[in-house]
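Final report, closing paragraph on structural work. Over the funding period we assembled a curated collection of sequence-structure pairs, and we close with a single example.
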Amino acid sequence: MKPIRGSPYSECVGGSWKMITMTVMSRQPTREPWTLERLNHERSILLGLSIDSSTALAYSSALKSYLTFCRIHNLPIEPTPDTLSYYITFQSSFISPVSVTSYLSGICNQLEPFFPNVRQNRSTALVVKTLKGARRRHGKPTKRKSPLTREDLQHVHGKLSASSMLDDKLFLAMLMTGFFGLLRLGEMVFPDNVGLRDFQKVTMQLTLSIEEAHYVFTLPTHKSDKYFEGDCIVVQKSSCNPDPLACMLSYVTLRDHLFPLHPTLWLHENGTVPSRSWFLSKLRTFFSSEIAGHSMRAGGATALAQAGASPEIIKAAGRWTSDAFEQYIQKNLSYCMHSYLAAPLHMTGCCNYLDYLLPCPIPMPPGACKIVLQLM
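Its predicted structure, as stored:
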């Protein structure tokens, strides 16, 4: 029977209608249907791309650790609260509880298709309290590398600025860009593991634009880019030595002369993308083991804090999705506070406050700098 106008119910007592209304113009393009085999194949590809290849490798290692634990203890592999609690108890005696926490994330990811309740079991009071107790009993202070300083940059600049070698100019430009742009080392180099190299993450030369007061390039997708849109990195010219803009211009001039048609931005003298081990070996010729690849990003965040930048600006400039940047700042908290309180006197003798501001990947609202200056 036809439904009553204006009512979802039919004229039949107890009957109801569910109707999907479609307009006359709501037409769909004609597409050939896929076979079930192709649907499974295409879905498998998408599921494989749901996490980064480096993350997938770490998760696989975590799963292997869990399966080995179950095998040597004759326990079923089902991740019940008891089994996960036993795993934490055992592993925390050999590795850091912080690493055990990361392992649990990988275990949940890998076992969820087979045991849908694994995340629920991971969140039970037994597992949470076991992990908390492991941190209290076995936890140790995290050893972090020292951040780079402007004095460190001046030291490297003094050694390499006069060099005519492309590799020297490359290293200097990357060092300055990593510090002033708050970049991770992995965002500029290839991983040493050839299987993890992905050209979709390589910065392209055509995205670089050098202006009078800054240079801009597009950073492709990275681990904190949830929407796979990339980020626009802007590095300002500095009135203090060393100037990142001058270093980049010197590198790009020689790079374009030697490789005018090569698509990637960062290039060796032999035309290959620099690797992580190469950059660290160059870094080791100037600094001790206390300075590592992440020291650029940590140093940039510390420099901003010393200049009196607000946490919101630091977080946006470094594209942090959490408050992890505070770990770098807190390590030099006393010096940062001293520099913050003495900022007006300190800046009149050297750089303008804007020289310390590392550019933000998103447009800064009008008056943002004025607000920070007023707080000082």
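The chain is about 50% helix and 5% strand. The longest strand covers residues 214-219. We thank the funder for supporting this effort.
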